[in-house]
Amino acid sequence: MKSALVVGAGFAGLSAALHLARAGISVRVLEAADRPGGRAQAWSSGAYRFDLGPTLVVMTDVLEEALGARRFAELELMRLEPGYEVRWRDGERFAMHSDIALLLAEFERFEPGVSARALDYFARVHGAYRDARRQVLERDHTLLSFAALLARPGRMRPWIAGSLRRFTERSFHRPRLVDALTFQSLYLGTSPLRAPAMYALLPTVEAIEGIWFAPGGMASIVDAFVDAARALGVEFSYGWRVDRLERSATGSWHAHAMEERFEADAVVVAADREPALALLGARAPRFRAMRYGHSALCLYLGLRRRVDLPYHSVFLPDDPWSAYRALDAGRLPDDPLLYVYNPVARDASAAPSDGSALLVLAPVPNLTALREGDLAAFRKRVFERLEGEVGEMREFIEVERMRGPAEWASELGLMHGAAFGPEHTLDQMGAFRPPMHDRRFPGLVFAGSGTRPGSGVPMVVISGRLAAEHLLHR
């Protein structure tokens, strides 16, 4: 293999391009949009700047491995303290500290005498997480190798059959501590009622390894990937939507974009896997039909006032489990769960001197259940919850943009408008997740949240590396 095409310039495609180029492969990236980033694009309106997608920076060693030590250091990431704040309607708050002494004090405030159990919990979960990184998340298992792992899971044993909620309740007895340590599975489009115990790793990694601030937002990390790739000779073609992929009689691959044809020895498809199969005139096998997770309603709000919120905030209902049950049943919760990103808390350049640029995210069902018109009424409930925390907002709006499942489907080609891809349940993890390669298409591999290992920036960066390794070692 001397050349490769990468379809999609999100984090998975950028990671694949970097790893292929480092191996001496000539790489061209084809991106339908006019800029890189995929779900992690940035958008500006006047003096307001927004990250349109992911905003939490965690598992920074994955970024360092992909970028290299020098370019990673140039990001100048700073550890947030606390990483975020969880709020309930009655005014109670929980701070997810990355300083272990402060975090234990916060736990004690909710549940006196819990410190020893908390330390044991974090030690066990972080140890199992390191095993999972090595044995599950950074490997593309076959069904046989994954079955062998499940039969002898070692420190991961409590994660195999247990649920996230039950696993957490064995260590923490106060409901609000359990609430604060389980909502994180929503990052992956899966409710804590359905998530396996494995996802206890999410709050554990946040507490032990930290949540980080990137000056310039997630877009600065995208730019670092692009700069690193260009330095290795990777070429980027923006505004080229690939509408067909085909393999020639000689074994090379052709990507048809508008009226042009691009040719290479191999292809990485870093777009949502099931819709991307249509580019090949194929469909996913019926026995591999995936259940897709929740989606998200995102509001991007440019306000003529400063909002008194930390960099990251989570607003939980008094009974979040009722909200999770509604989402799992395909309904909008009566009381929305909200994540609010307020970059001005650390980066004043994101808005005018007297303003704020907020990203407000609320989990919602995907398009298989969401009815037309549902989100208009839900938007009102979102604002009521926000204004109950920070005061009047609607009269101060200068910029507003809304994206929901319909936009995730039309703008990014995401199956069912599911912002996080296939649901992250035990039967859709590891080798049970859609494979990165398909025997019908030699020399072509998939990368991103629709395949292995899963959703989230660190996971899709790993996915891009695994995809490149498939091609390099085939």
TrEMBL record:
Gene3D superfamilies: FAD/NAD(P)-binding domain (3.50.50.60). GO terms for biological process: carotenoid biosynthetic process. One of its GO terms (molecular function) is oxidoreductase activity. It holds the Pfam family Amino_oxidase. Residues 11-472 form the Amine oxidase domain. SUPFAM superfamilies: FAD/NAD(P)-binding domain (SSF51905). Pathway: Carotenoid biosynthesis. InterPro entries: Amino_oxidase, Carotenoid/retinoid_OxRdtase, FAD/NAD-bd_sf. Keywords: Carotenoid biosynthesis, Oxidoreductase. PANTHER family: AMINE OXIDASE DOMAIN-CONTAINING PROTEIN, PHYTOENE DESATURASE. This is Amine oxidase. It comes from mine drainage metagenome.
